[in-house]
Specification:
10 helices; 37% helix; disordered C terminus; alpha/beta; Rossmann fold; disordered N terminus
């Protein structure tokens, strides 16, 4: 990589010199699994001693081998799952449960089918107990932000996959969380829609300055969107390395993916994951597929 490439600078919204917005300290999560028709139980360490600092206004992506615990870590940050050891703080506040300071966008949309777009976006405001006379302007603002003004009275079954995900993003943003947690939100849409949604997310992030943690299997997506990419190891999942993405901002995905800097960063992450896969092959293969065991027999 040339000196010019290594020093490619982009305007960032965060500083590593400031205190972290989110402090993840020594997080471990263990699942107890049991084989079918067998009372024998054993522990499976999903993630172990995960340490990570996320800065205010940062866009952080997390990538890693399938089953390395990316979504498990995101669930713990969201307060949907408790760690077996370690702590997570947001602005020095210990995370013990879900709260309105965190918005969540998942792959499966999770929209209420009996509610219109407007009513789905309103849900978080209801939970937050925002007065009814203040809701309309907020709802209209975020529906407009995701480009669904003409569809605000439609039901989810009347929307495409990309539109549903826009509604999910608007709903997560409407109650003004400080942190947005996104778990492979664009995995279920086609490639063209995915790129459009990526550009939309970058625009929304630029306008709102939210702190975003974005889990993905796609190296290209991680590099195109993020300020930094945290690369996780295979089981037990840990943070193997953090790669800075010093690409110019504001960005358009189609513009950055053809650049030499993008290719170098992408290759660096690809090498880390390939080396991880080679290391995992040295481990003795279990009698049964571990992911299958967990999904079927995990005692949560």
């Amino acid at each position: 990589m040339s000196k010019k490439s290594s020093e490619a600078l982009g305007k960032v919204k965060y500083s590593t010199e400031q205190q972290g917005k989110i402090e993840i300290k020594n997080i471990s999560r263990i699942f107890t699994i049991r084989r079918k028709n067998n009372e024998e139980k054993k522990d499976f360490i999903a993630i172990e001693n995960v340490n990570l600092t996320v800065y205010k206004g940062e866009f952080l992506a997390i990538v890693g081998p399938s089953g390395c615990g990316k979504s498990t870590l995101l669930d713990i940050i969201a307060g949907l799952s408790k760690p077996d050891s370690g702590e997570i703080h947001i602005d020095n506040k210990l995370i013990t449960k879900p709260d309105l300071d965190r918005g969540i966008v998942m792959q499966g949309y999770a929209l209420f089918p009996w509610r219109t777009v407007r009513k789905n976006v309103e849900f978080g405001l209801e939970i937050k107990k925002v007065p009814k006379n203040q809701r309309k302007d907020i709802i209209d603002k975020y529906i407009n932000l995701v480009g669904l003004n003409e569809f605000k009275d439609r039901y989810p079954y009347e929307l495409s996959g990309g539109m549903k995900q826009r509604v999910a993003i608007a709903r997560a943003l409407a109650y003004d969380p400080e942190v947005l947690l996104m778990d492979e939100p664009f995995a279920a849409v086609d490639a063209q829609t995915r790129e459009t949604l990526q550009d939309e997310l970058l625009r929304i992030w630029d306008e709102t300055s939210k702190t975003i943690i974005f889990v993905t299997h796609s190296i290209d997506e991680a590099v195109a969107l993020a300020d930094r990419v945290a690369v996780m190891s295979t089981n037990p999942g840990t943070i193997k390395e953090i790669i800075e993405v010093k690409l110019p901002r504001p960005r358009r995905v189609s513009d950055v993916i053809s650049s030499a800097d993008f290719s170098w960063i992408r290759h660096k992450i690809w090498e880390l994951l390939q080396n991880e896969e080679k290391e995992s092959r040295k481990i003795v293969k279990p009698e049964k597929d571990l992911a299958e065991e967990i999904s079927t027999y995990a005692q949560l």
